[in-house]
Fold these 2 entries.
Entry 1:
Amino acid sequence: MDFHNILIKWYLRNKRDLPWRKTVDPYQIWLSEIMLQQTRVAQGMPYFFSFTKEFPTVKHLADASEEKVLKLWQGLGYYSRARNLHKTAQYISDDLNGVFPDSYKELLKLKGVGEYTAAAIASFSYNEAVPVVDGNVFRVLARYFDIESDIALPATKKEFAALAQELMPKDNPAIFNQAIMEFGALQCAPKSPDCSICDFNESCAALQKGKVNMLPVKSKKIKVTNRYFNYLILEDVLGNTLIQKRTEKGIWHNLYEFPLLETQEIVDFDVVSKKAKEENFSSYTIIGIEDYAKSTVVHKLSHQHLHIQFWKIKIKETLENGIDAEKLKTFPFPIVIYNFIEKQEINC
């Protein structure tokens, strides 16, 4: 079919020079695919190099501590990916003797590996004829064939997968999958694509009908919750501070943070002062509370907007488990807290 021939020719002329495209090693391809979930290539690339340098094989990753993995992942977000990555590495290393499953069906059994990631590894590493269907693929196919099916529905994913399977050359599925994703990322962009230079501008149904910016259709709305975090930064007479590990399920699981006072709304000095003295740190003698006003930030996650304020609380005593500034920076923090630490140069 002309579609896959035109697409692959475009890809060979325009593809980006990406490290995971130079290998069929399932470990490196798996690593890159997990990192690029919800993440732009430019952001994920440095992390890919850091991980492959620090953990050159799946066994190196399996043998590392979770804390080390999270520290290296710091700033990439969606930290459940890192935790699943680590657990899966341990499973492959310990239970599968370090050998990756070599089929789409078996890859799906790995923790943190969904249909898209399994298809990517299966086709790129083993040349299995299984289509990848991500946001880029939805967009390209919806526009080219003028498909108005709602991509938020599970049935639509099956529809697009069947279409991609039909279009895919069975003798070279890997290059087709790479090509259609790359085309969606570089040419058939989400907003204002330059259709005048598109290789498909004479056959794209959406372009002929003036519907390029209307497709694909996605009706599902994400409900955003607002939360209000007040981080209480203790400073004792030695300049040391305290941190704690987030052990509950939810955002930032197993990362570190300062003692947290979560409220129902943005609160002022009086509220923080009262709660700190009466509830959070009643066993200490507080000699001063200060608001880091310039560090107040709204940190936006996919389903939550975190309104974060930082408060310095000086105490008269010496903290039993106090941490100094040098040691503080060795722990894995959510990036918003790590940036605060770097910016403020906390003298703890």
Note: Residues 224 and 301 are 9 Å apart (CA to CA).
Entry 2:
Amino acid sequence: MNTEATSPFEGATMVSYAQNHEDVLLNRVFRNVTDGFYIDIGAYHPTVGSVTKAFYDRGWSGINVEPGDVFDELQGARPRDTNIKAAVVDKEGEVDFFQNAVDPGTSRVATGITPSEPESEGETTRVKAVTLDNLVAEHASKRTINFLKIDAEGSEAAIINSTNWRVVRPQVLVIEATAPWSNRLINQEWDSTLLANDFIRVYFDGINVFYVRSEDKSLRSLFKLPVNVLDNYTLFDTEFERMKVENLNIQKDLEQLSAERDELRAEIEKANERAEYLADSLDYSRDEVGRLNSQVLDLTGLLHLERKSLAASTARAVRYDNIVNNLRDPGGPRALRLVLPLARLIRKIQRAFSAKSDNPTALSHSVVAVETSRPPVPAASKTPPQSILKRAAVRTYNVILRPFVRPFMLRLRTFFTQPVNDLRNEILSNNEELGKSFKMLAITILSQPRQ
């Protein structure tokens, strides 16, 4: 693999995320490597202060080891990497890990490594512990490690002194080698171990010491100069990125609000349409109520008239009922007592002469002959005497009595039945049942049998 660039200053502008521009210096070495591999012990955040972020964006991958609570964010941002939640020390198992709430980047293994713990706010938890040898053997045994970064906040000596550097051979080592928040080197405990395993110390940037394996000692020339403007880089602006993220969130909120606004507008339009429909329905209902009220008033007037008419008809019915009762009562008024026997007598005569004979055809011929003044048809030689008398009586009635009796009877019948007929017709127009009753009453009067 060719790791030497033709010029340390060639290439596009890079963005530096590391706290002391370590990634800029590493970019000088690996500018032309497109598919590299790294190991980051104490990776912390996936972006803020990250030595590997710029290389991950270029397509690299590697192993990130972080025991703190920020691990979930790291794992979510680095799906292409192998992310391990553990502390790298000199043994396998579990260790106490102190998480600093004030400055999470200074969280560290709490026991067995450092002689004392600074007073700070936070809590101590148990975390998984692994060795660097086992980590490389399990996840990178067949990979060329381009660079290995160790930032273990005091555990560097335990890691370096317990690792077999004849097997684990990264091209470049980047190790934090100063006391917290100072430039004082504290690499005396482990610097000799790396030198004894053929690693060459090539650079100190004030916080980290850079080592190059002896196989790649040609890379030493790239560490002669400190990071400068000619390295063609820009700094990652944490505040700008935070504002950019906030801006993206605001844009999402605005899009959501816009969608909700459109939904509300659609609902308002539907509500307005519904209101217009209800208003039209209300107007129609009011018109319908007015029409029904008018009909009710008309029906009320008709009912009032019908009641008046019924009252008048009832009074008439009572009056004519009295007349009928007087006609049917033999002990009624005098005028009716004089007329009633005569009416009954005429009724009897009419019944007697209108009765059917044994030979209705012959009787019919006799009546017709009498009415037309034609000579009667000669009867059979053996005609009974009763038939001869009946024909004589019929002839006598038709010739002598009928011209006087029939007009008198018609006038008398009209006189007595005309009021009843008028009443019947009037009541039939208002009440069919009452009309039927009066009809039956009139028939009863006319068909009154002889007492």
Note: The chain has eleven helices and 13 strands.
